[in-house]
Predict the structure.
Amino acid sequence: MSDAAPTDAPTDAPPDGPTGGRPASAGEWVADLLPGFERRTLELAEDFEGPVVATLVRRAPAAARTDVPDAGVDVLYVHGWTDYFFQTHLAEFWESLGVRFHALDLRKFGRSLREHQTPGFVLSLRTYDEDVEAALAVLGHGPEPTTDRRLVLMGHSTGGLVLSLWTAYHPGRVAGLVLNSPWLEFQTRQVGRRMLEPGVRAQAALAPRSHLVNVDLGYYVRTISSRLEGEWDIDPAFRPDAGWRATPAWLAAIFRGQERVARGLGIEAPVLVLLSAASTPPVRWSEAMRRTDTVLDVVGVARRVPALGGVVTLVRLEGALHDVTLSAPDVRDALWRETARWFHGYVGARRVPAADSGAGAGPEWLVRLRAWLTGRASSPAPRPRRS
């Protein structure tokens, strides 16, 4: 599905888009900007701005683990707004469970952004169906599957909203859905969203690619980027510190998706939702921002969780950031434990990762996960708040 041409002319030229190294021909795996990973360009239908691609990322076969039994499960991860895949530790976690991990940079984001494009611009969230289907076809999970492996989808923030809708529209395709701070409700909640929506839709009809006010003051990236005060190596060419200025057409699409969630999605597959225990409004800096969600209203999102489906697990993590996988080490320990518990309970048979030759070998979170799975944990990990 491709977006029809909007009625307005661009208000300014789109910024140059990074390519992440040597451009890949469609269908060809090439070395990625992340060491030990490779990527594949997925050609999509052109839209009014020209050629469109998505990008699939995986661990290079030569770097794949061989010491863990194969769980027969594939995970496809989708990022959030103004984002791209860089969370290699998330891939390591899934791979420690014997899962084959792939990540998708959606059209006009990260590795998929091209010079002629408006960053992140779509007219409908259903447009991303083409991106998701193109990635799943490579994995063998198309409408006519060519694999007997089970499929788990994982989405962060806007990606969580996109995958929630996709899963509802395609019943029977997935064995499980993991949502990392999914954008299920607007920050002003339903009343505020419905008050804003008429004006946003009117602006979207008249000037869909005009720019809305940018409310990102850079506090979130301050807590995560190693160039500032965070832990993670984030390329500002792929994820600008001040984000992108959203367009009214895109925000109208978000509102429609959130309204669809509010009416109930009826997802049949088991769902895991991971949220911070608290939010901090991003109006002025405070130290609380280092251990809370500064992007979403987690209370409003949590109230939408039951509308996803009949089998939903909600885990509220004390001290978690908006991307819970980028939180402090003690929070990540709790995150891995809870995700592994859900995975073994709902998706795959419980498997204990093969022990390394040396005691305590590997990352700290993996050592703790092994200890928990084998009942040898010497001390309890931090307990998340569950609701």
